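for the recovery benchmark. tokens below, seq after
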């Protein structure tokens, strides 16, 4: 199973928008932008929403059937660990091995010594394809990177072998992710991580490092775009180098866990992808849930009431909802409108505040982040929320498709 060059992790919290999402990929394909869908959902999301991995498989298969989608599609067990992977094995054919918790903890001395001795040849000046000048990996830097990441990659190896013992490895795609940590990984650290992945025999097709800058949920990138652009390009060069040097899968590519909607870095990403002829996996799952709320608001009537209630409850339970997302949320409370104000908004006022249109003066990124983590409220509403999704299905579908197609796919993926 070989993941295509361009793929997008679209997720879908409530498993209702599969067709609307796939339609966006269909529209992009008509313009020569070919991307395959990956429906990703983490254990955390399943627990909060009350779904199981088989639901994602069912939804994906139904969407593919409804639109007669001829290309591949995948179901990603997102951010799994040994603790929770078993429930995903049957329904998933893409596994994101999350070993971020093991970073920063050293492997045992013997393993570290063996690793650094084996990769001694990486030290000194390195030339990377497509980049000016040379990179320097000192012996000390190699050792330090090994101390930070070898244990994590060993854990990824254990997890990979655990899955491979239950499902033939040629029937799934493997991603190694280390993005959910505080400290970004430099391109030279990525090189060391890839050496360790090859040593462990993990046939990784995607790797998700932590980039510099903040990737807050549902809103734009916060950080120096030029710094990100350089780092992204260097990572692409490191991957191309590592594929040759370590014999990793030839389609190995970066996976960017965007936290949704990182519009300002899309353009530099697209330029770099074109320059290197490189592939990309972009995860932008949460954005669809926000389009559902926008669609509810725009429909008016009962669905609009539901959208207002989601905000009211989220506002009242801000600390609880934001807690699990502390490193990827940055809400200025004083910028949040009081729920009584939102209760008086029309559907289009609500939609304008929530929709990610930076040029619109009504757009409120603080409100958007709060609603982003508010899907737990919708899950608790149960039938009332799901009925509202049905009632407003047309306006929701239009928003979901337009958002993925116009704001994401065409901005980040180069045409063939
Ligand atoms: Zn992630």
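predicted aa per position
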């Amino acid at each position: 199973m070989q993941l295509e060059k361009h793929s997008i992790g679209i997720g879908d919290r409530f498993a209702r928008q599969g067709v609307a999402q796939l339609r966006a990929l269909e529209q992009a394909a008509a313009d020569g932008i070919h991307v395959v869908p990956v429906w990703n959902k983490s254990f955390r999301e399943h627990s909060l929403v009350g779904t199981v991995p088989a639901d994602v498989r069912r939804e994906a298969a139904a969407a593919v059937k409804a639109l007669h989608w001829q290309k591949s599609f995948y179901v990603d067990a997102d951010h799994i660990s040994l603790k929770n992977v078993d429930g995903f094995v049957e329904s998933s054919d893409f596994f994101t091995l999350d070993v971020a918790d093991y970073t920063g903890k050293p492997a045992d001395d013997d393993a570290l010594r063996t690793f650094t001795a084996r990769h001694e040849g990486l030290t000194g000046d390195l030339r990377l394809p497509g980049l000016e000048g040379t990179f320097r990996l000192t012996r000390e830097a190699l050792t330090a990177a090994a101390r930070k990441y070898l244990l994590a990659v060993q854990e990824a190896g254990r997890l990979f072998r655990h899955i491979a013992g239950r499902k033939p490895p040629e029937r799934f795609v493997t991603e190694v992710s280390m993005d959910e940590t505080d400290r970004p990984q430099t391109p030279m650290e990525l090189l060391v991580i890839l050496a360790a992945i090859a040593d462990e025999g993990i046939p990784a097709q995607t790797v998700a490092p932590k980039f510099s800058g903040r990737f807050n949920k549902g809103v734009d990138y916060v950080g120096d775009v030029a710094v990100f652009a350089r780092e992204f390009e260097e990572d692409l060069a490191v991957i191309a180098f590592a594929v040759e040097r370590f014999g990793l899968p030839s389609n190995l590519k970066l996976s960017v866990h965007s936290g949704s909607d990182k519009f300002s870095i899309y353009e530099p990403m697209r330029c770099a992808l074109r320059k290197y002829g490189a592939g990309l996996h972009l995860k932008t799952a949460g954005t669809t849930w926000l389009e559902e709320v926008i669609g509810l608001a725009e429909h008016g009537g009962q669905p609009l009431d539901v959208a207002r209630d989601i905000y009211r409850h989220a506002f009242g339970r801000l600390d609880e909802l934001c807690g699990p997302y502390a490193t990827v949320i940055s809400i200025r409370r004083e910028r949040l409108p009081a729920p009584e104000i939102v209760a008086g908004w029309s559907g289009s006022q609500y939609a304008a505040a929530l929709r990610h249109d930076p040029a619109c003066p009504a757009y409120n990124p603080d409100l958007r982040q709060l609603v982003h983590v508010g899907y737990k409220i919708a899950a608790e509403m149960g039938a009332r929320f799901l009925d509202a999704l049905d009632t407003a299905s047309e306006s929701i579908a239009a928003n979901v498709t337009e958002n993925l197609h116009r704001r994401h796919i065409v901005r980040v993926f180069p045409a063939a």
